[in-house]
Amino acid sequence: MSGLTYLIPIALLLGLAGLAAFFWAMRSGQFEDMDGAAARILIEDEDL
Q1: Buried-exposed string 18-37: b where 16+ CB fall within 10 A, e elsewhere
Q2: C-alpha to C-alpha distances, 41 to 32, 34, 37, 48, nearest whole angstrom
Q3: Which of 11, 18, 31, 36 has its CA 20 to 30 A from that of 44?
């Protein structure tokens, strides 16, 4: 039972850290152009 007193706050802190990282990624524009990144894989470079 005493292990839960350590694990529950750690799990909550890790969850909040993940949520903060997600909101930071949203604010910095990481998810703006999802179709462009997918199409960029298919474009062949001709200057090789």
Answers
A1: eeeeeeeeeeeeeeeeeeee
A2: 17, 12, 7, 16
A3: 31
User: pTM score, two decimals?
Assistant: 0.64
Tokens coding 8: 């529950």
> Where do the structural domains in the chain lie, given as residue ranges?
4-40
What are the tens digits of pLDDT across the range 3-40?
999 999 999 999 999 999 999 999 998 888 878 877 88
At which residue do the structure tokens 């090789």 appear? 48
CB 24 within 8 A of CB 31: no
